[in-house]
């Protein structure tokens, strides 16, 4: 199979999308921005696929997932479907020799995630998971400063990911059932937080102690099978200690992902809802650094498409991720592209959180 990329002068990547909701819209926008075409869209029903294809301006709708997975004119499959379907669709796409972008969680079990990594590794296919907060330029600036040793030895972490979309007992979603997997809040947003922590610090979470809470046993007449909130104590490979609070019931918080790192010399803080800035702390002063391609690290500057003072946000981060996916398909090795191996890592951290919480918050080693 030959796939090409417009910005390399080799051609155009043609995508098929499974799913028709918000993430499908984000994926389609990013794919077009990267120079690709949206060939087909499929949802759980043929009628839904037709509506989604029209909304996403795809060339055609597909009657089902198999039609996309085996289409000769599709190079890259985007999986934007309910969590429990991610692993089987991703495995089928790889076996059909398609490149894959699969939403997180990559899988709801470690065994399934391991099979996906092994299958992808045995091929020359690109298999990516959109941990797109890596693609905020000021995240890359934070990472560059950590790598230069500006913080000194990492001592503590104060991190959170807070939302309020499940605040009320009438708030309901397919994710609250077993269909969404044994974890909801942590697998859904805690995975993003842990990926960002490990990406910026260049350290892995070695062990953790977790407590989870399900506030409502029933939502809108449906039983709730997973957690609304997770509170986690972590210890990194170097011995740094940290607190992580993950909640989908924090009133007024819409998408408040925050990482604050305290080193022996300096500290830094990134807030996803204020992605243009990076807070820097020292004993003698504190600074608020604004995004500027003229002054930030090269890895940050390469993701900055507009001059300083012209705000960039979530879709820009997703566009940067998708540009790297297309570049990888063309043979490049983009720095920081999250792959299925990162999706497996997130699944292992999630499993450790659930094991610890089931055992009353006991300390659990996180397998590498």
Please characterize this protein's 3D structure.
- The structure is a single chain.
- The strands form 3 sheets. The protein has a 9-stranded mixed β-sheet with strand order 16-15-14-13-7-12-11-8-17.
- The chain is an alpha/beta fold.
- The chain folds into 2 domains: 6-132, NAD(P)-binding Rossmann-like Domain (Rossmann fold, 3-Layer(aba) Sandwich); 134-309 and 338-358, Dihydrodipicolinate Reductase, domain 2 (2-Layer Sandwich).
- The protein contains 10 helices and 17 strands.
- 32% of the residues lie in helices and 23% in strands.
- The protein has helices spanning 22-33, 46-55, 65-69, 86-95, 110-121, 137-147, 185-201, 298-301, 314-329, 340-358, and strands at residues 14-18, 37-42, 60-61, 76-79, 99-102, 127-128, 154-162, 205-213, 218-219, 222-223, 229-236, 241-247, 256-263, 267-271, 277-281, 286-290, 364-365.
């Amino acid at each position: 199979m030959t796939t090409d990329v417009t910005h390399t002068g080799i051609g155009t990547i043609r995508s098929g999308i499974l799913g028709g909701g918000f993430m499908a819209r984000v994926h389609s926008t990013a794919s077009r921005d990267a120079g690709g075409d949206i060939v087909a869209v499929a949802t759980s029903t043929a009628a839904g696929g037709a509506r989604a294809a029209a909304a996403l301006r795809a060339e055609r709708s597909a009657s089902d997932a198999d039609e996309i997975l085996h289409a000769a004119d599709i190079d890259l499959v985007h999986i934007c479907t309910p969590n429990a379907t991610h692993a089987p669709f991703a495995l089928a796409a790889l076996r059909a020799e398609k490149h894959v972008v699969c939403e997180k969680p990559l899988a709801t079990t470690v065994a399934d995630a391991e099979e996906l990594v092994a299958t992808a590794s045995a091929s020359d296919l690109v298999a990516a998971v959109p941990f797109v907060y890596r693609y905020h330029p000021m995240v890359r600036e934070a990472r560059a400063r950590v790598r230069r040793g500006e913080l000194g030895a990492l001592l503590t972490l104060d991190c959170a990911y807070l939302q309020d979309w499940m605040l009320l007992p009438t708030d309901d979603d397919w994710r609250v059932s077993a269909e969404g997997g044994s974890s909801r809040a942590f697998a859904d947003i805690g995975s993003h937080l842990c990926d960002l922590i490990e990406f910026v610090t260049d350290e892995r979470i070695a062990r953790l102690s977790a407590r989870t809470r399900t506030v409502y046993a029933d939502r809108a007449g449906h039983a709730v099978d997973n957690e609304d909130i997770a509170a986690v104590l972590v210890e990194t490979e170097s011995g740094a200690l940290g607190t992580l609070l993950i909640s989908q019931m924090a009133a007024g918080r819409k998408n408040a992902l925050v990482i604050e790192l305290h080193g022996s010399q300096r500290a830094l803080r990134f807030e996803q809802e204020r992605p243009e800035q990076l807070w820097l702390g020292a004993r003698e002063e504190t600074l608020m650094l604004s995004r500027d391609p003229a002054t930030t690290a090269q890895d940050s500057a390469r993701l900055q498409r507009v001059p300083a003072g012209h705000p960039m946000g979530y879709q820009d981060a997703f566009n940067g991720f998708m540009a790297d996916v297309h570049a990888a398909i063309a043979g490049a090795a983009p720095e920081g592209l999250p792959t299925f191996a990162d999706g497996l890592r997130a699944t292992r951290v999630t499993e450790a959180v659930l094991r610890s919480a089931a055992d009353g918050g006991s300390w659990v080693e996180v397998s590498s």
